């Protein structure tokens, strides 16, 4: 018999290393899922459509017979693939509501010697849990600074130092500007982005600070959920005041290897906001392989944009830190010291 677990217990088992199989159809999985789950569809999208049609238009019995007819020839492949995923023969699984699909797969793998875990309530229950977690209050600390201040690298260094970190840009697969998609794969759905936030918060220790990069609410086409955004704007900010020269070098380090046409297209997309005359100048610089000159023109726009954001979307305390050079390890230690010094003031309870 499969073990049936509530969402928090189920996700804790995933954290402990149990592979999680999503037995829904490929399109359901592509839209949104539990982070790090593995697509393991019982039916293709077309097969699921046909079974659903029979269920609604004919009878539950007819739909069940069709499902058995489709799944029967696949059973051996399901077992072999599951053994590749988990040689230890322990897996968790879920479908939409914790119903027939996951129960059927658990029955099959259970009879093949697997220890199986089912998510009570299926994906819908996990989704409710994620929404609940990003709607709570957390002791967040925003790492602020104008474009090119090395915030993402610092955030990653904080994580490597054992600090709690939420990487919104990594979750959204976007760096947060008109250039933020360059060199990256397509963005996930907004629902999956929200799930990633909720799942990350579920793993956090509420007795410790959580470091997060200062962002606008929109990262490309993905939007930070309103409750979490509200708490984010009220969180303290450590603002890194980095020289323009250092920031230009940081930006060039990130974007120098990208294709010229992609950079040009990004400038064209912000032509109305940045000003056509400045975009024309930037495109001319790029045409002459002057990435540094184009970067400095872009910063005239992005610096004003960030300053406006800091002034109008920051309601918590701001600590300004003068940064002479982007020595990431040194800055990381400085931020940790500031966090420890202000721990009692910045810790909040839900």
Task: Tell me what portion of residues adopts beta-strand conformation.
Answer: 5-15%
- At CATH's second level, what is the architecture of the largest domain? 3-Layer(aba) Sandwich
CATH topology of the largest domain: Rossmann fold
What letter string, H or E per element, gives the SSE order?
EHEHEHHHEHEHEHEHHEEEHEHHHHHEHH
Structural class: alpha/beta
Strand order of the largest sheet: 1-5-4-2-3
Q: Which residue ranges are poorly predicted, with pLDDT under 50 across at least 5 consecutive positions? A: none
The largest sheet is:
5 strands, parallel
Tally of contiguous helical segments: 18
Assign an overall shape.
globular
Radius of gyration, taken over Cα atoms and rounded to an integer in Å: 24 Å
* Terminal residue distance: 38 Å
Give the class-level CATH name of the largest domain: Alpha Beta
Mean pLDDT, to the nearest integer, reads 94
Tell me the number of structural domains.
Answer: 2
User: How helical, in percent, are the residues?
Assistant: 40-55%
Count of extended strands = 12
Structure, described:
The chain has helices spanning 7-15, 26-31, 45-57, 60-71, 75-85, 100-111, 122-134, 151-160, 168-172, 190-202, 226-233, 244-255, 260-269, 271-274, 276-287, 291-312, 328-341, 343-346, and strands at residues 3-5, 20-22, 38-39, 90-94, 115-119, 140-145, 164-166, 210-213, 218-219, 222-223, 237-242, 318-323. By secondary structure, it is α/β, with parallel strands linked by helices. It has 2 domains: 3-131, Rhodanese-like domain (Oxidized Rhodanese, domain 1, 3-Layer(aba) Sandwich); 137-346, Rossmann fold (3-Layer(aba) Sandwich). It has a 5-stranded parallel sheet. Strands 7-8-6-11-12 form a 5-stranded parallel sheet, sandwiched between helices. The model has no long low-confidence stretch (mean pLDDT 94).
């Amino acid at each position: 018999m499969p073990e049936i677990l509530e969402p928090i217990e189920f996700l804790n088992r995933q954290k402990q290393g149990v592979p999680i199989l999503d037995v829904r159809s490929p399109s359901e999985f592509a839209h949104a899922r539990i982070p790090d789950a593995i697509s393991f569809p019982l039916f293709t999208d077309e097969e699921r459509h046909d079974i659903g049609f029979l269920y609604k238009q004919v009878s539950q019995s007819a739909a069940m017979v069709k499902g058995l007819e489709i799944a029967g020839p696949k059973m051996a492949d399901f077992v072999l693939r599951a053994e590749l995923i988990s040689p230890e023969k322990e897996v968790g699984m879920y479908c939409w509501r914790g119903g027939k699909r996951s129960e059927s797969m658990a029955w099959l793998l259970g009879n093949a010697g697997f220890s199986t875990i089912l998510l009570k309530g299926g994906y819908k229950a996990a989704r409710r849990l994620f929404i609940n977690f990003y709607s709570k209050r957390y002791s967040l600390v925003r790492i602020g600074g104008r474009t090119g201040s090395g915030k993402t690298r610092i955030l990653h260094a904080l994580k490597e130092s054992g600090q709690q970190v939420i990487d919104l840009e990594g979750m959204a697969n976007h760096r947060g500007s008109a250039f933020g998609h360059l060199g990256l794969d397509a963005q996930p759905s907004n629902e999956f982005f929200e799930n990633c936030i909720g799942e990350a918060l579920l793993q956090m220790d509420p007795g410790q600070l959580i470091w997060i990069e200062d962002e606008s609410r929109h990262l490309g086409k993905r939007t930070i959920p309103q409750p979490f955004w509200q708490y984010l704007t009220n969180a303290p900010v450590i603002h890194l005041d980095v020289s323009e020269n250092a920031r230009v070098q940081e930006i060039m380090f990130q974007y120098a290897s990208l294709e010229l046409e992609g950079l040009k297209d990004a400038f064209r997309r912000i032509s109305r906001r940045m000003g056509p005359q400045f975009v024309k100048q930037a495109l001319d610089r790029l045409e002459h392989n002057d990435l540094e000159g184009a970067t400095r023109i872009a910063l005239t726009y992005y610096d004003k944009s960030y300053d406006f954001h800091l002034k109008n979307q920051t309601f918590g305390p701001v600590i300004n830190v003068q940064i002479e050079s982007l020595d990431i390890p040194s800055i990381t230690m400085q931020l940790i010291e500031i966090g420890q010094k202000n721990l009692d003031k910045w810790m909040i309870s839900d």
